[in-house]
Write a structure and sequence with these properties.
Elements: H1 5-18, E1 94-96, H2 106-115, E2 117-121, E3 128-131, E4 136-137, E5 144-148, E6 153-156, E7 164-167, E8 187-196, E9 218-221, E10 224-233, E11 249-252, E12 260-263, E13 266-268, E14 276-277, E15 283-286, E16 290-293, E17 296-298, E18 301-302, E19 323-327, E20 331-335, E21 338-340, E22 343-344, E23 351-355, E24 361-365, E25 368-370, E26 383-386, E27 393-395
Parallel strand pairs: 1-2, 2-5, 3-6, 4-7, 5-8, 6-8, 7-9, 8-10, 9-11, 10-12, 10-13, 11-15, 12-16, 13-17, 14-18, 15-19, 16-20, 17-21, 18-22, 19-23, 20-24, 21-25, 23-26, 24-27
Length: 400
């Protein structure tokens, strides 16, 4: 249909009066806006007065609220059980900072984590990065540690050090009763925070664990552990070694073998933001069960070579671009999760899962795995699997 010149002018005028521009679906509506986004203008009698002059001065422009962290797979629809949900932090035991960025220091974080309890941050209205000059270490006698960044805090290892460490078998963190690997505490929760540029390269491995290195951002041995709405970027651990792994997280000897919950969290997320390690560019464990819900793993890499039975002249490793799981009887469930553009130099571009006695199992539920190259071997696209069944149980999209 062709419009006459007069009609075009009328349409233009109407569009100008309606605002016509793209407001951006993620931006909050202005104060007083209706659900549809149009501001309500009312006369003193409460009736709409289209075109009437305002009776009060418009509110002074305010600085838009600082962005709050949004992590995970926005399309993930997996149900989250109570055990995997964020902890209530409305009544914190400790607050890092007094309302200014300068008051939020590495020393304050280290002290708060050692003391334990529910920890929040007061660093001002804007996002803040706290560069850690020391690793924050959890004391083994503490019952609960909750680290909640409120969506605005980044803890950075500056590419030099691990960020958070929990190990109930490390006597330096306090004595434990009985078997150090069978402790139901500390109960560590990390939520609403970003952990960036952590590194365990060259860190002495746990002396009681063969190839116990890894965990560039987080190393957890013993107790209970979960992650909710957290982002991991540019973390790293040693580049060679069989079983050594977890650029973001290394988990061992979790109470009752887990599960460890990873909920609505991001590992990598964009080119140059992923983790790099010998095995498991994001996660790594031996004999630990996991439940991974509504999360995103992308651009993570397993960079070792020689796989687990490393031939002479090779360091070993290169398995599990994003996730590396080994051991005997353990289970892994991945639901509502997107995994793409992860890479393994050997096997399992996205997931490497080996149950040595074939008693363990892997389940994928309504998750998307795509473009996760395995340079040497795989059972399915992006997956290497040895478990109780011939192949992992998959509902929803097939890996591609």
């Amino acid at each position: 249909m062709r419009l006459r010149a007069g009609s075009l002018l009328l349409v233009a005028a109407l569009l100008a009066g309606c605002g016509g521009g793209d407001t951006g679906g993620d931006n909050p509506a202005p104060p007083g806006a209706t659900e549809g986004g149009a501001a309500a203008s009312e006369a003193p009698d409460g009736k709409g007065a289209l075109g009437a002059a305002p009776t009060t001065k418009p509110p002074a422009s305010k600085k838009p609220p600082a962005a709050v962290l949004r992590a995970g797979n926005p399309n993930g629809k997996a149900s989250v059980p109570a055990a995997g949900r964020a902890v209530d932090t409305s009544k914190p035991d400790r607050v890092v900072g007094n309302g200014t960025p300068a008051s939020c220091t590495s020393k304050a974080v280290v002290s708060a984590v050692a003391a334990g309890g529910v920890i929040t941050f007061s660093c001002g209205p804007d996002p803040v990065t706290i560069t850690m000059s020391q690793t924050a270490k959890v004391r083994s006698s503490v019952r609960k540690v909750v680290i909640d960044g409120g969506g605005k805090v980044t803890l950075s290892g500056a590419g030099k050090r691990r960020i958070i460490y929990q190990n109930t078998c490390d006597s330096a963190q306090g004595a434990t009763s009985g078997n150090c690997t069978a402790q139901d505490h500390p109960q560590l929760t990390v939520q609403n925070i970003t952990l960036a540029d952590g590194s365990s390269i060259g860190v002495d491995p746990d002396p009681e664990v063969t190839n116990g290195g890894g965990g560039g951002a987080l190393y957890v041995r013993g107790g209970i552990f979960k992650v909710v709405n957290t982002k991991f970027v540019r973390n790293k651990c040693d580049s060679g070694g069989p079983d050594l792994g977890g650029a973001a997280i290394r988990a061992l000897d979790i109470n009752n073998d887990g599960p460890v919950y990873i909920v609505s969290s991001t590992f990598g997320g964009a080119s140059g933001q992923g983790g790099r390690c010998s095995n498991g560019g994001a996660l790594s464990s031996i004999g630990v069960s996991w439940i991974v819900l509504n999360s995103l793993f992308s651009h993570n890499e397993a960079i070792g070579f020689g796989a687990n039975q490393a031939p002479a002249g090779t360091p070993g490793g290169g398995n599990g671009g994003a996730m590396y799981f080994d051991g005997g009887l353990f289970t892994v469930r991945i639901a509502g999760t997107l995994m793409e553009r992860n890479h393994a130099r050997e096997g399992g571009g996205a997931v490497f899962f080996v149950s040595n006695d074939r008693t363990g199992s892997l389940r994928l539920e309504n998750s998307t795995l795509r473009r996760n190259p395995s340079d040497k071997f795989e059972t399915l696209p992006g997956i290497f699997y040895l478990g109780t069944t011939e192949r992992p149980a998959i509902t929803g999209p097939k890996p591609s």
